[in-house]
Structure formats: C-alpha cells, structure tokens
Amino acid sequence: MMATMTDAAWAAARAGQWASWPGLPSGLPVASVVAELTGAVAPLAVASRLGRRPVDRFDASPLRVWADVGAAILVEWVDPPCAGAVAELLAALGPPDREAAGRHLRAGATTTEYVYAGRGLALTVAASYDQPPGFAPYLATVQLFAPATLRDFVLELGGGDLPGPRPIGPGPR
C-alpha cells in the first residue's frame, strides 16, 4: 500500500499534475526523493532551520529537501512541471487554505502563494504585473509535504517565513 501511494505521488509530481498530488508520504529517505525527482544522488546535508526547529537541508537543483533524522519533511521544487494552465490548476484545487503574497520572488513578476495544507501542497504562481500582461502566469515553485493543518505548515514547516529573496544555488562562499 505504501509503495503504491509513493509511486502515485511521484507520478503526479513528475507529470506536473498537482491537483492529483496525494501528499508527501512520511518516512521517505532524502536519497529516494532526490533520485525520484532528479535522477541524481543526494548531496551532503547543510544544517538549517525550518519553522521553529533545526533540520538538515539538501540542495539538489532544482530541489531543496529538508529532512528530520534522514526523512524528507519538505521538498521545494523551483520551476516545476505543470500539466496545464495555472488558472485551470487553481480551479481544480479549489479554494486554498491561505492565499498571500508570494514568499518566493521572481524578477519581473509578482508572486502569490496558494497553500493547500490538507493536500500537502503550496504553490507559488508568478504573474506579469504589466498591462497587458507580458507573459502568462506560471508555476514558479511548489512545496511538497505530508498533509497537515495550516497551523502545522506555518509553525513546523516554515510557512510563516518572511518574504524576500531566496538563494537558488550554492550561495556565497
């Protein structure tokens, strides 16, 4: 049963079918998450914080994976696949638990974060602020986690982090 659920989760993610995302299965080793979504080997861990607790972070572009005792608890995917138009995806998902200014910024765009805590999914959508729009809205980032309450998303998974630029890549040395 767990293998079937895990296979379904990865199939939905790789296809960009976020309305079918069943939530991040619990207890998955970081190595299997990175291998399933990028085909790469998991990099070395970096000490990090997530919400109010210390965790390990693994940067495997285009992913960032946060783990607690080796098990993935949050996966952030920059420029993920999206099977259809963003408007269709948002309609299929229904009303979010929270809609707010995006915490993941993009140059030349305004971002909005849609959190579906009960689905284990947070989407950041980038849209043109030009009139008429210079480009169609696109899915800039997804965060994948086990289904949770909005409270747990904010307190335990960093869903209340302040907005601002986020490093993509190894950062300063």
Concise synopsis of the structure shown:
The protein is built from four helices and eight strands, in the order ααββββαββββα.
Would you mind describing this structure in some detail?
The chain is an alpha+beta fold. It has helices at residues 2-15, 30-38, 86-93, 150-156; strands at residues 46-50, 53-60, 63-68, 71-78, 98-101, 110-116, 121-127, 138-144. The protein has one domain (2-156). The protein has an 8-stranded antiparallel β-sheet, covered by helices on one side. The longest helix is centred in the first third of the chain and has 14 residues, at 2-15.
Strand content: 25-35%
Largest sheet: 8 strands, antiparallel
Number of helices: 4
Low-confidence stretches: 163-173
Element order, helices and strands? HHEEEEHEEEEH
Structural class, judged by helices and strands? Answer: alpha+beta
Which of globular, elongated, flat, extended, rod-shaped describes the shape? globular
Overall pLDDT level: 85
Distance between the termini: 44 Å
Give a count of the beta strands, DSSP E runs of length 2 or more: 8
Lateral arrangement of strands in the main beta sheet: 1-2-3-4-8-7-6-5
Helical fraction: 10-25%
Number of domains: 1
